[in-house]
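step 3/5: co-fold with adenosine-5'-diphosphate
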Amino acid sequence: MIMKSRKIVVALGGNAILSKDASAQAQQAALLDTARYLVEFIKQGDQLIISHGNGPQVGNLLLQQAAGSTAENPAMPLDTAVAMTQGSIGYWMQNALDQVLAEEALSVDVATVVTQVEVSPDDPAFQSPTKPIGPFYSKDEVETLRAQHPDQTFVEDAGRGFRRVVPSPRPIGVNEASVVNKLVAADIVPIAVGGGGVPVVREGSRFVGCEAVIDKDFASEKLAELVDADLLIVLTAVDNIYVNFNQPDQKQLDQVTVSELETYIDQGQFAKGSMLPKVQAAIEFVKNNPKGKAVVTSLENVGRFLSDGDGTIISADHVESELAKS
Ligand SMILES: Nc1ncnc2c1ncn2[C@@H]1O[C@H](COP(=O)(O)OP(=O)(O)O)[C@@H](O)[C@H]1O
Ligand SMILES: NC(=O)OP(=O)(O)O
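step 4/5: write C-alpha cells
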C-alpha cells in the first residue's frame, strides 16, 4: 500500500455543486469541474476525504416532497431528506470523480458513506432556526408562505431575498467515523458528512433523526478531528478570507493564527451564516489538532494552493511562533 503524503478533509461549498440552474444535469456538470480540481490533490499523492453542502438541494427536495404528498404517499421528514441529498450528491460526486480518475488513468476507488452526525437534543439551535435552505423568495412570496406555513421560519438572507431557515445544531460526533477511517486505510476516497450529516440524537442505545440541517463546515471539522487529518480545506467562492471584506481597504489574509482570527471575529469581520462558520470551524480544528492546519480558499485557486500555498492558511498560535523562531 502506498503511504499518502497528507490526509486532507475537503469541504465543498455551494458553488462547487449548484450556482443558478438546479437541474440534475447542471449540478452534475458543476461537479465534473469540481472533480477536476480535486483530482489534483490525488495526483500529488494526498489522501482526500470529501464533504459537501446541501442547503439549496435539501430545501428544494422538501418543496418537491410537499407538492406531491398524499396520505398514502407522505412527504419525508427533514432528516430523511438530508439522507436523500447525501445519496444524490454523493452519487454525482462519485460518478464525476470516477470519470476524471479514469481519464487520468488513476486507479483510485471512491465511496459515498451515508453519515449520521450526532447532535444534542438540548442544543439551543433547536429553539432558534438559522440555517437557510432552498430557494430565495420575494417579500410578497414570503408573506404568502408565512400565512400558509405558520410552523416554518423565513428570514431575509444578506439582502438577497428571503429564505426558509431550519435549526442547525453543532455536531458532537460522527457515527460512521470508524468506517471512514477504514476506507482511508484502504486508500479509498470517502465522501462523508454530506449536507452536514444526517442529524441524529441519542435515545438510549439507538439514534433517532431530528428536524435540522447541520452546517457542513462544522461537520467537516468534526470529521477532520476524528480522522486525524493534517489539513481541513474549506473550498468556497473566494480565494481568501479578508478583513474589511468588500470595503475599499479590504485586506487579504494569507497566513493567520487563531488569536488573530479571534480578534477579527470580535471586530465583526466575518458575516454570520457565510464566512463566520468557516472561520470558527478552522479555529476549532487547529485548536484541537495543533499540528494540523486549516485552509480557506476557492476551487479555482486549488492549483495555486498546491504549487505556492496561496489561500488563507490558519495555524495554531504556537505553530506560528515556532515558525517565527526558525
Ligand atoms: N470577511 C470575509 N472574507 C471573505 N469572504 C467573506 C467575508 N465575509 C463574508 N464573506 C462571504 O462569504 C462567502 C462564503 O460563504 P458561503 O457562500 O455561505 O459559503 P459556501 O461556499 O459554503 O456556500 C464568500 O463567498 C463571501 O462572499
Ligand atoms: N449543510 C450545509 O451546510 O449546506 P450548505 O453549505 O449548502 O449551506
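step 5/5: annotate
The chain is about 40% helix and 25% strand.
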